[in-house]
Amino acid sequence: MKNIKVVGTGCANCKTTLKLIEEAAKGIEVELKKVEDVLQIMSYGVMSTPGVVVDGKVVHAGGIPSKEAIESWLSGEGASDCSSISSGGCCG
Predict the structure, then answer these.
(1) 92 domain residue, yes or no
(2) Is 11 a catalytic residue?
């Protein structure tokens, strides 16, 4: 089972990211959590939100991830989409 966390303070992009992952994960066994605590977010090193952590590894930060990226995380094929980390994201 994949453990997926969407980290962010609750902005619209964070909520959209959570919804996209929920939709993509239908029929797949995942544990999906929303992390809004600033200290926990910082502990992952996510400076731009939303961030996505899959099995303890940050795979995305800043902006809404593509459906293709989400599907690759769920299948275990994609390592990360962290090219967006420097983009500033929705909240940072």
Answers:
(1) no
(2) yes
Report pLDDT for 10. 87
Which of the following is catalytic: 11, 82, 90, 91? Answer: 11
Mean pLDDT of 39-56: 94
Q: Is there a domain that residue 57 lies in?
A: yes
Residue 40 lies in a domain: yes
The pTM (predicted TM-score) of the whole model is 0.82
Q: Of these residues, 14, 82, 90, 91, which one is catalytic?
A: 14
Starting at the earlier edge strand, list the strands of the sheet with 51-54: 30-35, 2-7, 51-54, 57-61
